[in-house]
Design brief:
Elements: H1 16-35, H2 40-62, H3 74-86, H4 94-101, H5 105-116, H6 120-138, H7 143-149, H8 155-166, H9 170-179
Helix pairs in contact: 1-2, 2-3, 3-4, 4-5, 7-8
């Protein structure tokens, strides 16, 4: 059996930054575990984000240079993800995200796509749909309330994007998961 060799530094910082990082990684892994049976694409995206954050932090603390220097750093990934998740209910512009990551909008957009595999707008829409799915399962709110709560302009907007992503209407998806 091959022995696992860690590239992590021997001493990790124990400050609040590390606790915040660990919490973010735990949250991403929880999403992956929870969504593994329901939506493997969401699970894969969460695992990819967790892997990217962890690898960039290992490299940052070990002094290793990233071969893909055009991607976002771990701290940028964390801050952008948190901002998006906290602001799903309102419009999120690339300019806002680039300011959080301290990059120009053009550089940020290129780096974001390298890191997440999709443009910022597509990622935000995906996170809104994920949140809508969660609310449809855990609350009795109407689809129009859920649509507004996650940042879509109205129920029709939610329905159109939901159908494109999942191949069925939110109402039929909700009925299907309520039975299970």
């Amino acid at each position: 059996m091959e022995e696992f060799q860690s590239t992590a530094p021997r001493s990790w910082p124990a400050g609040p930054e590390f606790g915040y990082l660990a919490g973010s990684l735990a949250e991403l892994l929880d999403v992956a575990k929870r969504e593994f049976e329901h939506d493997r694409e969401v699970a894969k995206a969460s695992l990819a984000a967790a892997s990217t954050i962890l690898q960039s932090e290992i490299e940052r603390h070990s002094g290793v240079k990233r071969s893909r220097s055009a991607g976002l750093a771990g701290w940028q990934i964390m801050r952008v993800r948190i901002f998006i998740d906290k602001n799903l209910h309102r419009p999120i512009h690339t300019q806002d995200l680039s300011a959080i990551a301290r990059r120009s909008p053009a550089h940020f957009s290129r780096s974001f796509k390298l890191t997440f595999g999709e443009p910022p707008h597509a990622y935000v829409v995906k996170r809104r749909l994920e949140k809508a799915c969660s609310l449809m399962i855990t609350s009795s709110a109407s689809l129009s309330e859920i649509a507004l709560r996650v940042g879509f302009s109205d129920q029709a907007h939610l329905c159109r994007l939901f159908r494109q992503a999942f191949g069925q209407s939110p109402a039929s998806w909700r009925r299907e998961y309520e039975v299970q």
